[in-house]
Structures are given as structure tokens and as C-alpha cells.
Amino acid sequence: MLVRAEVNPKYKEIEVHVCGGQKDKKVTTLVSELSKYLNQEFYGQDENGVRTVLNPLDVISFFASGQKVYARTGKGIFFIQKKLYELEEQMDPRNFFRISKSEIINLKKIEKLDMSLSGTIRVILKDGSETYTSRRNVVKLKKTLGI
């Protein structure tokens, strides 16, 4: 597979072209995966009401608090107008994992895991925040992480 980048001022936004000799499973899968990845941006609102485009790769975790859903990023916490189950369906399961009824974490943002507690796992994220898995998700998290 050949991958190349072309930088030219004639392009006003990024374009991705997938070219092949025939439309086979490899081409279809690649187009599908790229579409999912590239179309995942969503809006968040900060405490001042300013709407910002958020990239899922920048999200440390999504959490519910007081009937609202928030995204924690390195730039702050943003209100999201989606439900946790919608985010869970939208986000790539290779990167995001639902650790409890009220939280989804970015697996790439895990700093450490503390498994010394019985029945749960304490997850320390790269921003220094801590969270805990629910008992029902401990086995699934271990399997996902290959522990």
C-alpha cells in the first residue's frame, strides 16, 4: 500500500483519496475506517458558553455529572450535548472504554493502573485525575488492555 502526502495551496481543506485497481474489501474497509476517524469531531462548550470543536484524540475522559455530560481535555472541561451511550457508540472502541455507568475513558490517556484494591481498578490518567472502574467492568477492562 502506497501512502503519500501532497501539500499545495490550491487545497482549502484536507482531502483524502483512496485509489485502487478494483473495489475490494481492503478499499471498502479503508474508506469506512477513514470516514469514521475523520468525522468524529464534535462541539463542546466551556464554562463561559464558548463553543469549541473537540477532537476525540484530545479527550481524556467523558463523564456524567448532574444530568449533563462533559469532556475532560488538556485544555479544560467542556459540556457536551450528547448522552454517554451516544458517545460510546460514536467513539472508536480501540481508544475509548466505558469504565462505569457515568464515565468513558480514553485508553491512550492512561498513566497508571492500581489493582491493589479488591474488586475494582483505580485508573490514574495523564492529567493527574483518578477514577475507578465499576466492578462489572473490571474483567472487560483487563481483557481490553491484555492484562
Notes on the structure:
By secondary structure, this protein is α+β, with helices and mostly antiparallel strands. Helix content is 20%, strand content 32%. It has 3 helices and 10 strands. The chain is globular. The two termini are 33 Å apart.
List the helices and strands and how they pair.
Layout: H1 25-38, E1 42-45, E2 51-54, E3 59-65, E4 68-73, E5 76-80, H2 84-90, E6 96-100, E7 103-106, E8 110-114, E9 122-125, E10 130-132, H3 138-145
Antiparallel strand pairs: 1-2, 3-4, 3-7, 4-5, 6-7, 8-9, 9-10
Helix content: 10-25%
Strand content: 25-35%
Order of helices and strands: HEEEEEHEEEEEH
Number of helices: 3
- Spatial arrangement of strands, main beta sheet: 5-4-3-7-6
Distance between the termini: 33 Å
Compute the average pLDDT.
88
- Gyration radius, to the nearest Å? 18 Å
Give the number of DSSP strands: 10
Going by helix content, strand content and strand pairing, the class is alpha+beta
Q: Which descriptor suits the 3D outline? A: globular
Largest sheet: 5 strands, antiparallel
- Show unreliable segments: none
